[in-house]
């Protein structure tokens, strides 16, 4: 008799503990099963570091094999002094030096669009997909405003993949050369990025 009473109260105590622990978890807003808190080391993260990359971005709009193609525009785009509304998809080579023949280190893949009616201001949305050395296969994502006639344009690095997981930083673009006849442009990109 006394033994079973003891058993019963022990059992209710355990049940109470179980309910309390669940209540506690809920109070922390922690859903069960699909989320957990882990340490950065659990996914191999060590010291965060800052890297600087200097690359040359080649926007080739002319010739038989352009790396930058017009895919969309508004009816008014061609009469707009800023080509407002144009959208170009790019797969632009990124090289170590300003010459297209210098070492290819990656490609800038994405698009840009003229999003200013009063001056030449672009929205840039692109992944810098690296192809060289340990960076091969890793990407840096840049999304920002490129006011092309400003000497140095700054755009945010909003993320990355591979070696650039958790990336944050900024890119500074400055025009190296523009061929006024063809429209081809070479732009120097200096990227400062925190990553692991
Ligand atoms: C980069 O990775 C790809 C796919 O894994 C591979 O085919 C290519 O040879 C690599 N390039 C360099 C320069 O290591």
Ligands: 2-acetamido-2-deoxy-beta-D-glucopyranose
Count of DSSP H/I helices: 1
- What structural class is derived from the secondary structure elements? mainly beta
> Tally of extended strands?
9
**CATH fold-level topology of the largest domain:** AOC barrel-like
Please give the radius of gyration in angstroms.
27 Å
Folded structure, characterized:
The protein is mostly beta strands and 196 residues long. The protein folds into two domains: 2-38, no CATH class; 48-195, Beta Barrel (AOC barrel-like). It has one helix and nine strands; from the N terminus they run αβββββββββ. It has an eight-stranded antiparallel barrel. Strand 3 (87-95) and strand 4 (104-114) form a beta hairpin. The chain is elongated and about 95 Å long. It binds 2-acetamido-2-deoxy-beta-D-glucopyranose. The site of 2-acetamido-2-deoxy-beta-D-glucopyranose has 4 residues, from loops.
In a nutshell, what does this entry contain?
This protein is mostly beta strands.
Topology diagram in text:
Elements: H1 2-27, E1 49-59, E2 68-72, E3 87-95, E4 104-114, E5 121-130, E6 139-147, E7 153-161, E8 168-178, E9 185-195
Antiparallel strand pairs: 1-3, 1-9, 2-3, 3-4, 4-5, 5-6, 6-7, 7-8, 8-9
The chain binds 2-acetamido-2-deoxy-beta-D-glucopyranose.
Signal peptide: 1-29
Keywords: Apoplast, Secreted, Signal
Subcellular location: Secreted, Extracellular space, Apoplast
